[in-house]
Prior knowledge:
Elements: E1 8-11, H1 18-28, E2 33-35, H2 36-44, H3 48-55, H4 57-72, E3 78-80, H5 89-100, E4 105-109, H6 112-122, H7 132-150, E5 153-156, H8 162-174, E6 176-180, E7 188-193, H9 200-204, E8 210-216, H10 220-232, E9 236-242, H11 251-264, E10 271-276, H12 278-290, E11 296-301, H13 304-310, E12 315-320, E13 323-330, E14 335-339, H14 348-364, H15 367-375, H16 377-381, H17 385-388, H18 393-413, H19 429-438, H20 445-462, H21 468-480, H22 492-500, E15 511-517, E16 520-525, H23 529-538
Parallel strand pairs: 1-3, 1-4, 2-3, 4-5, 7-14, 8-9, 8-10, 10-11, 11-14
Antiparallel strand pairs: 6-7, 12-13, 15-16
Helix pairs in contact: 1-8, 2-4, 3-4, 4-5, 6-7, 12-13, 13-14, 13-18, 14-15, 14-18, 14-20, 19-20, 19-22, 20-21, 20-23
Amino acid sequence: MLTKHPRAVVIGMMGAGKTRVGRETAQLMNLPFLDADVEIERQVGMPIPEYFERYGEPAFREVESDLIRRTVNGFDGIFSLGGGAPMTPAVRECLAEYIAEGGKVIYLMADPREAMERARRGGGRPMLNGDADEQWKSLYQVRDPVFRDVANVMVHTYGLSPAQAARRMKDMIDERAVHVTGSGIDPYDVRIGERAMSHLPELLGDRVTRVALIHTQPVQRHSDHARALLRQGGYEVVDIVVPDAEAGKTVDVANGVWQRLGEEGFTRSDAIVGVGGGAATDLAGFIAATWMRGVRYVNCPTSLLAMVDASTGGKTGINTPQGKNLVGSFYTPAGVLADVRTLASLPNDIFIEGLGEVAKSGFIMDEEILRILESHAAALRGFDGATFLESPLKDVVCELIERTVRVKVHHVSSDLKEQGLREFLNYGHTLGHAIEQIEHFRWRHGNAVAVGMVFAAELSNLLGYIDRDLVDYHRSLLGALGLPTSWGGGAWSDVLALMHRDKKARGNMLRFVVLDRVGHVIHLENPPMEAVEEAFRRIRP
């Protein structure tokens, strides 16, 4: 039998609202709620103040630690701890084990003045005997650093009603996280969920003074939200608007941003935040990597494509007239905040293009992605931002984002700088990038990759690696999602020239990423040119 674990463990100062907010969160999520102090009183048969007086604090902490360990390993709801519980080493050890198994320890952070008033009003708190406010302040000075160290989620409730705080905590509990680590990588998390952007101050830290907020005009409402969060966090914000899409990924645009940073006096202790689609986050990362030889940055992708591709993995870059992403660097962010509320503002066609990269991850590694896409193809193709956040599709999309990011992390963690394994992420990209270039980037990346995958499948079939059924499956699945499977632009000679400039090419030798079965990718080096041309002919309308 699998061990039950709480969906969340709530910690915080006395009077922070752990019981009230925890109980309302549990109701929102249709989960049971347990208060450690109530359970202790039931177990010992007397109020906690009386137990303190009779047996002392050490005996109480021992009872408390035993109860917490049993509950963390046998309860599947929301579990609220007493204010001092995390100060006990045994409890901290228990919570660390719980986090390691995927648990969420939430530090509920209330306005100190409100918390003190509630704690004073509630009474019956042995740790506040005497001058309650002064005792609370003294405890806060000691406990706050420990709570910050113990928790892996922080929820600020300043100015929120209990219902609003409960909603925020629910969003944090529902949030998904993918940890990115590996050789040459400073570890970071990709957070996926509603209100993920609220982690911005937490990721930037207290050593950053100024933040350059790099964004495009179409995402103004999301950059406004990011700016408000940054200012609430005490940061000075420098607003930098760049052209939308690939028009923003040029040397001239990058130079303009560098000039602005120089004029504002940005130093290595300042930071970059990128808000927008894949092009904006590519540019922001490149600026962060090159300014002062590297400053802290956080990506806040606002499109499905950016969430699953450009914003994660540490590849940054700009385009040149000769090709896409030919100038860039490998530089990892402090974190990626995929706030799915931003998806609600996407037009249907921009959402759908992101499914191209999602499907790619299914073909190269995670077959469950393909099954989810098949099962929900009609709903995904009919995506409507106005209803998205309140629909069952939201959870489907969150799972697809998480799974796709995990595929990327698998390849990046062992090959940050694209020397081998990471190249498999480029399935469909050799032709896809050529299409984008020839179309002057009027074709969206995910659409171009979809056609590129069909081309790669055709090439693999022609050379005997996969059967016809798998080629047809590419066409049927991608088509069902609303993605293109053919392209009628460009001449073969122009396409061939651009494929020779692809980053996977070695000298004058073409290299392709192809499947030999679903979930297994191989390098195809210097295939017969007649097969390459025939595969190209087969993707023509």
